[in-house]
Automatic annotation (TrEMBL):
SUPFAM superfamilies found in the cross-reference section: Winged helix' DNA-binding domain (SSF46785)
InterPro entries: ArsR-like_HTH, HTH_ArsR_DNA-bd_dom, WH-like_DNA-bd_sf, WH_DNA-bd_sf
SMART domains: HTH_ARSR
Gene3D superfamilies in the cross-refs: Winged helix-like DNA-binding domain superfamily/Winged helix DNA-binding domain
Domain of life: Bacteria
Name by which UniProt lists this protein: Metalloregulator ArsR/SmtB family transcription factor
Length: 113
């Protein structure tokens, strides 16, 4: 059984929501004010703030406040556990597919009885 990583579960939870993913996509272009992040969503500011809170709690974004303006920035290195897990899964499935291909090729070469 795979080892349990609570950090990974929290990251996937944060990434599971399409609104949060769209916020991260926007922040990948550069830092943005909360109001700029809120406008394209069509959601009320408190709802967007809850989404931002989830992203900040798992370390995917960092926020700063200058007067009344709160700015958000993405923290790309926070995705490293997800990248590592996905790379491990890819290696496992590629090995399985390689074994399946070898089995199929061997079965095709054997004469039928």
């Amino acid at each position: 059984m795979a080892k349990h990583c609570p950090e990974l579960s929290l990251l996937f939870h944060a990434l599971a929501d399409p609104t949060r993913r769209s916020i991260l996509t926007r922040l990948s272009e550069g830092p943005a004010r909360v109001t700029d992040l809120s406008d394209p969503t069509g959601l009320r500011l408190p709802t967007v703030m809850r989404h931002l809170s989830v992203l900040e709690e798992v370390g995917l974004i960092a926020t700063s406040k200058d007067g009344r303006v709160r700015t958000c920035a993405i923290v790309p290195e926070a995705l490293e556990p997800v990248r590592t897990w996905l790379d491990e899964q890819r290696a496992i499935w590629e090995a399985r597919l390689d074994r399946l291909e070898a089995f199929a090729m061997k079965a095709m070469k054997e004469p039928m009885e």
